[in-house]
Amino acid sequence: MALSVSEVILVFLLSISEVISQCPPSSGIYLRHDGNCYTNGSYFFDADIRGASNSIMCVLFDTTLNGGEWVNVTSGSSVNCSTNPLRCNEVSSPNANISLYIDGGVMSSDDGWYKCCLPTNCSDFNTNIVFANIFRWVQIETITVDLPSDITVLPQTYTLHAIKIGSNDHSSFLHAANWYYESGSSSTQLCTGSRASYSCTFMYGNGMSVDYGSGRWDYTLTVTWSGDTITSGVLSQSNNNGDHVFRFYLDFGHIYHSPVQRNRDIFVTGK
Ligand SMILES: *[C@@H]1O[C@H](CO)[C@@H](O)[C@H](O)[C@H]1NC(C)=O
Ligand SMILES: *[C@@H]1O[C@H](CO)[C@@H](O)[C@H](O)[C@H]1NC(C)=O
Ligand SMILES: *[C@@H]1O[C@H](CO)[C@@H](O)[C@H](O)[C@H]1NC(C)=O
Ligand SMILES: *[C@@H]1O[C@H](CO)[C@@H](O)[C@H](O)[C@H]1NC(C)=O
Ligand SMILES: *[C@@H]1O[C@H](CO)[C@@H](O)[C@H](O)[C@H]1NC(C)=O
Predict the structure, then answer these.
(1) Is 215 touching ligand 4 by the criterion CB < 6 Å?
(2) Which ligand is nearest to the Cα of residue 69, counting in written order?
(3) Ligand 5: centre distance to CA 115 (Å)
(4) Predicted model pTM
(5) For residue 252, with 0-12 CB atoms within 10 Å meaning exposed, 13-18 middle and 19 or more buried, which class applies?
(6) What is the pLDDT of residue 7?
(7) How far apart are CA 31 and CA 99, in angstroms?
């Protein structure tokens, strides 16, 4: 499945997305939500940012608000702080500070990237910019690989992780949680999950889903690659150098309320 150009840019932009314990030391633009600081490009579940008291605060310490704004990256338009569904509170001193929150319901077209610019507007080249993703249902927060310490030794066994965040009502809303092996234009399904079950039946992989708590699920896929000795099966498809592309796919949500489809790729470089 092909990603659009904007998805590729955003996947690149936002590959790091996690809570950090401290806000940047008194300089630089930052995001704060529910007492924690978030790195540039973090993901926010819509249910977590409903109401002014649950807003995403965007702050630039020691500056005065001078045209700063939140912009909807999809449309390029400024978020109007006084209309639903995304509202904001603007504070101009002692720090330029615009808190963004949801009032009412978001639609599928509101799902996506927003950027906060402070203290001036986003068209000012000298402004400070930070990105946030507001999502409905679920997102794939990160996708990573644990490579063996010596990647020159065969066979190699490595584990892929896809961290799913957002709604945890799998029994009602999870339609698919799949891993694929990508080769040229073809995709081979390695694992499949739906409702409460998750399994990988493919000959080179096995997997599981682990509840990390705090709304995080780790869908793992363990792959053993034996190098050139593999002569059949997807991992040997015209690819003997150990470089492989895997994709994690989620389809989640109430079927009458615009379920979401998410995709993230990972490129695994062999020896
Ligand atoms: C963001 O932009 C998209 C595309 O124009 C639009 O459909 C959506 O309503 C916008 N959402 C908000 C909250 O501005
Ligand atoms: C924001 O929305 C309000 C209410 O609809 C409107 O009066 C105001 O002009 C809008 N502001 C901008 C900058 O478009
Ligand atoms: C930002 O504004 C909110 C109110 O919208 C306020 O609660 C918060 O303390 C402000 N943060 C900073 C760092 O100025
Ligand atoms: C953005 O800021 C620049 C510099 O302050 C200003 O010239 C421009 O008119 C502003 N644009 C908008 C849309 O407010
Ligand atoms: C956030 O990421 C964007 C895109 O990579 C970058 O332009 C911006 O400067 C970053 N902001 C901060 C505060 O690092």
Answers:
(1) no
(2) 4
(3) 10
(4) 0.87
(5) buried
(6) 41
(7) 9
Q: The sheet that has 244-252: what strands, in order across it? A: 197-200, 186-194, 174-183, 244-252, 260-268
* Distance from C-alpha of 150 to C-alpha of 123, rounded to nearest angstrom: 47
What distances in angstroms separate CA 146 from CA 61, 73, 157, 227, one per listed residue?
Answer: 38, 33, 9, 18
Name the amino acid, one letter, at 164: K
CA distance 39 to 164: 18
Reported as type and span, the H/E element at residue 8 is helix 5-13
Find all residues with CB under 8 Å of 245, minimum gap 6, and list them: 181, 182, 183, 265, 266, 267, 268
Query: Which distant-in-sequence residues (6+ apart) come within 8 Å of 66 by Cβ?
Result: 92, 96, 119, 120
Contact 177, 209 (CB under 8 A): yes
Per residue in 22-53, pLDDT (tens digit) is: 577 656 899 999 999 999 999 999 999 999 99
Nearest to 23, CA basis, from 33, 13, 14: 33
Q: What is the number of other CB atoms lying within 10 angstroms of the CB of residue 102?
A: 23
Beta-sheet pairing, 56-60 with 69-72: unpaired
> What's the pLDDT tens digit per position in 134-146?
999 999 999 999 9
Closest ligand to C-alpha of residue 90 is: 3
pLDDT value, residue 246: 93
Quick one: which of 124, 129, 104, 127 has its CA closest to 114? 129
Q: Ligand 5, atom 14: nearest CA belongs to which residue?
A: 40
Question: Measuring from each residue's beta carbon to the nearest atom of ligand 1, which residues come in under 6 Å?
Answer: 72, 74-75, 79, 85-86, 109-110
**What is the position in ligand 1's atom list of the atom closest to the CA of 110?**
11
Ordered domains of the chain (ranges, CATH) = 5-135 (2.60.40.10), 139-268 (2.60.40.10)
